[in-house]
Amino acid sequence: MKKMIIVLGFLIGGYGSALAQSTAFRYIIGETHKVYASPTFDNFCMGLGMDRSFNDRLTVGFDITYDIGHALKASPEYIYLTYGGRSGNYQVEPRLLSLNYHTEYAIGDDGGLHGYIGTYVGLRRITQKWTLSDSYYGGVPSPFAATKSVAKMLAPIGLRMGLRGATDGGFMDLYAAVGYQIGGGKPIVEETRYNSKEPYMETSSLAVSIGLAYGIGW
């Protein structure tokens, strides 16, 4: 985490020292991330971002998105756990907040539709609220808590590529990113009784994102 903060600070420092030639605000229509080992892509995020083009090749941006798919979902997810011959069925409400700083190097003329490749670094905060809906333990005290809250921070870093229009004007941005997720590849809860391969119980060390945004620049 310390290394990631240093890298992020360096990138932001470079961002602030550069002279922008054009600026754009982006509405992120839809974005999904691989956050858990299972399920792979079950979140649907929306958000806002800002881009700045420094020259005819380099653009940088900052985005913030929130998983509205789970926030607006009428029914919760479920995980089924067993421990010591006893079992519990939890309702799980997962949430995701994502922040990303990215660079783009245009492949071709960035005055129109063009491809790009660059880097990105981000922060993802995942939270879960668990509510025990059923417990089967044969008349002895249940090993599972009635409610439980979980929160984790992940830091994805890697490459981003996409196809977009010029920053100066209205444009679409279709993009994908892949990299390593610092803090991932671990169970959500370290306690033995909760360790399981059930959905939402283990974070992914592989970070993958896919998104579509619409921007207006000048």
Keywords, please?
mainly beta, 2 helices, elongated
Ordered list of secondary-structure elements with their pairings:
Blueprint: H1 2-17, E1 22-33, E2 45-53, E3 58-67, H2 68-71, E4 77-83, E5 86-107, E6 114-136, E7 147-164, E8 170-182, E9 206-217
Antiparallel strand pairs: 1-2, 1-9, 2-3, 3-5, 4-5, 5-6, 6-7, 7-8, 8-9
> Radius of gyration over alpha carbons?
20 Å
Low-confidence stretches: 2-20
Please provide the count of β strands: 9
Give the termini distance in whole angstroms. Answer: 36 Å
Structural class: mainly beta
> Strand order, biggest sheet?
1-2-3-5-6-7-8-9
Biggest sheet overview: 8 strands, antiparallel, barrel
Estimate the strand proportion: over 45%
In short:
The protein has 218 residues and is mostly beta strands. The protein has helices at 2-17, 68-71, and strands at 22-33, 45-53, 58-67, 77-83, 86-107, 114-136, 147-164, 170-182, 206-217.
Characterise this structure.
An eight-stranded antiparallel beta barrel has the order 1-2-3-5-6-7-8-9. A hairpin with a 2-residue loop joins strand 4 (77-83) and strand 5. By secondary structure, the chain is mainly beta. It has helices spanning 2-17, 68-71, and strands at residues 22-33, 45-53, 58-67, 77-83, 86-107, 114-136, 147-164, 170-182, 206-217. The protein is elongated, with a radius of gyration of 20 Å. It has two helices and nine strands; from the N terminus they run H-E-E-E-H-E-E-E-E-E-E. The longest helix has 16 residues, at 2-17.
